[in-house]
């Protein structure tokens, strides 16, 4: 075997172990007994210790020095392995193990505190997570870089906090102006009635299949916070239900199917290698957001969905497909990021981005987080947070140590805007298929131009190759202003 062959055989087993770790995380959020939290923390710590040892194994460095790539894919494999190896070597093994244990335990404490509305019960463990993440960030930055930028590398390689801040600064004024204009216009009607949970879940499964989710290689479960997990032949998603809001279930499902379809669409030859997963969370989010919003909330598709909703639930107070399209896209006050309309969603992300940067720099202390969140929310949205579950306790991310993850949600929207612009130019009669509930032309274009590549190209490059332009916020803002200008008669 060549050095490259030996390295890839070793990496194959590392990737398989990482998938097992991910499956433990899926289990914890879906079916794990509540009394197993402490033991699961020890289990996660044990497997993380093994993974860290493999990722930082000196043999990897030796293989990397001697390996010769035979083609572009092999060169990309080496690029991604080297990036992971260099990062793993900077983080002490005991720190990686401790982080895995604490974040596993913190997840359960967050869920309990959220249910009880008790911020004080969560702050001690969050304080420990923040302390450990700062320590990790300092190790990764190695005294020469920004701690937050070092964390971003885990989720959006090659992007800095300053670059993201510049994009957000360009987006914020136009989003605020659009929201202000919409507030002066009459609001669309809401759905009326109660919506049976079993019927919601049946329709959500139908929608998952409509959008190309392969249930032979996946499954749908319920969770407090919808998510997607896994890659290759085992890609699972979760959704949630609310009796008075079926869109919560249906569009959470479509969103997570976008993530899952990306993983299922990657070239099978990359399975259990660094290229066999999404290249970044921003690119991942571009798929979930374009499935959910540009495709799923577009006029053509909602016209078809209106008929399916009537079949599933009967009369719900909306008379025609046009009014239904407006209801699906209604801009409304709200606290929850995952339920936010397209106009306001990115404002939720900007709030979290600024707060977590301040936490990592030490400019904001954990004990002051609730006040800082509430003050910023009131300033940005014009009304007060009513309870912690709608404020700083609503998201799972910080409890599990995902600092640097939040901004990728908004980057995903930016990328989706570029992709949607390109898709409409490349796919003739796109709307005709969507109006029949046939999304295959749209999803097929995404699979061919982006999903199949997995980690072959860096994030901005894969978006640029698919969309034919360097990614920026202009297409997204133009799409939002056109869509909501038409709905609200602006």
UniProtKB/TrEMBL annotation:
Keyword Methyltransferase: no
Xref: Gene3D superfamilies: 1.10.1370.30
Pfam families cross-referenced by the UniProt entry: Peptidase_M32
Protein name as annotated: Metal-dependent carboxypeptidase
GO MF term (any one): metallocarboxypeptidase activity
Amino-acid positions noted as binding Zn(2+) in the UniProt annotation, renumbered to this chain: 255, 259, 285
Source organism (scientific name): Pukyongiella litopenaei
Organism lineage: Bacteria, Pseudomonadati, Pseudomonadota, Alphaproteobacteria, Rhodobacterales
Cofactor stoichiometry and binding remark: Binds 1 zinc ion per subunit.
